[in-house]
Amino acid sequence: MSAVMITRKVRKWEKLPGKNTFCCDGRVMMARQKGVFYLTLFLIVGTCALFFAFECPYLAVHLSPTIPVFAALLFLFVMAMLLRTSFSDPGVLPRALPEEATFIEMEIEAANGNVPAGQRPPPRIRNVQINNQIVKLKYCYTCKIFRPPRASHCSICDNCVDRFDHHCPWVGNCVGKRNYRYFYLFTLSLSLLTIYIFTFDIVHVVMRKYQLSNQREQTGFTVLEVLVCFFTLWSVVGLTGFHTYLISLNQTTNEDIKGSWSGKNRVQNPYSHKNILKNCCEVLCGPTYPSVLDRRGVMQEDSPVSAASAAPSSSSSTNPVPQTTVRTHTHINLNIKSRAITEGVGEK
Ligand SMILES: [Zn+2]
Ligand SMILES: [Zn+2]
Description:
The chain is an alpha+beta fold. It is built from 9 helices and 12 strands.
């Protein structure tokens, strides 16, 4: 049975390696595990809904009508920052093409020489100089590239991410070069929103108590909100404080955990301006970087189909085989190889 090649156009995101999920035709990019992200959405939306339903009407009448307006603006900002962090490319680095990978590995082998059998080959590292500091670039065995400085491979998303900070299950995405500032603004605004709701919940309880109102059942929801806000406060405000400290040093969570610039090996942080204000400006107001993935770019893909299924039959003569049904689930690199094999066989 001979094979027939059908060429179809596919978006590049459909063929990207790694463990990300895409929707809206590649516009939205997230990690595969999204359970905790839905919990984040539920907690934020649920707490705010209770606040708007049970506290705001009372506080707007008895205290100030600006209280619900400010809460609504803060809530919208929190949601915008959360979705911006969760749905964007954090700075994923493309993997090497098979030919590039072969070339890099040949270069490494040539540099290392022949390693006697039974001996461990030397680590695959390249040194670069940044601001008079020697920084090691490590080779990623999965992506087949020497990672740029500050990049790291996320085991959950299975991608190398530029200026990798950490993988955050709460936002359902990696936090890296392209979404760090939005992540920080999310934690900062969420801290403010939590403090705001917590404060006005307590004001509401106190005002009702002194008013000797008979609407006691409504304060039950207020107590629930106070409890949620109280536990959120510790974690979110603590996290914001930690990231403020990291930004003031121009350091990532990954570098802090690994102690990359702790002074051992006499390597100081080459990215720090030794000035808190300059570091904050660079991290929060520096240039934004375009995605290098080109997720919505179009590429041609040849898919082999058997001649029997491709030949028009009586039932398909009026309804030809739709190209979209010819889908291969193989990796693009394997696809190139299988294509070469199939074509080789066909030429004989
Ligand atoms: Zn990698
Ligand atoms: Zn990740």
